């Protein structure tokens, strides 16, 4: 019965592929699935079926390894995990904030929120270790519960004694980092992902940079919580330094091409949205720079396409 359910999952996974692609490659996909699941248990067969489903969704959305969008996501995925890990590790500073030590321990939401603050960085660190060693299946499996914990953290904040730090819209924006980061990691083509010495250097540098910058912002927010004018200046400045710093690290240790530039923009965009949620003119400029840098490869590719297309005969 279990094998029948896994076969049903595989058939549904095949249906997610475009009809033309499925008609041409169904036998090949079935053979690959049968070989990968030979002797595997129920979870192993389900995991392979989910991989096939993800491949089908990438084909439908144009995020395959042969498309530029997929190649950009492959560049962005390890950097996105590094930025998220550095940010959440720096978030551990909240455990030492003066207000946290005075929260009533009898409140269950407070206790769960504090436990969540300590557990979430551990999941991101484990995901980063999996990325470091090239185990992307493990990394993706860890990113999903990390996203769930971040959602739970926002819900717990609504019922804790401290409440939301800001408006509900800001609380929703707090989900941008884990949800968008998870989307990038899950959507990146698996065959373009893998460990390399240059990638490891880039990951390490990006993680350290994000941790240092977020720690600085956390300290200002902890000890000067009412200095909104200061934060409105620091936020865009912090976002600009993060983007420029990660870009410099990626170009220094990685491949120097337009895909790298776009990948960096996609990787830092979730964190940028969180930092610049209360947009100032400086924040708008920084966000526009990041968004424009992410579209450069696509604009260049479109321009080359029009230049290479011969004019139609009259």
From TrEMBL:
The entry's keywords: Membrane, Transmembrane, Transmembrane helix
Statement: the UniProt record of this protein carries the keyword Membrane: yes
Transmembrane keyword on record: yes
Domain of life: Bacteria
Organism listed in the record: Streptomyces luteogriseus
The protein's name: Uncharacterized protein
Residue stretches spanning the membrane: 76-97, 117-134, 141-159, 171-189, 201-220, 226-252, 259-276, 282-299
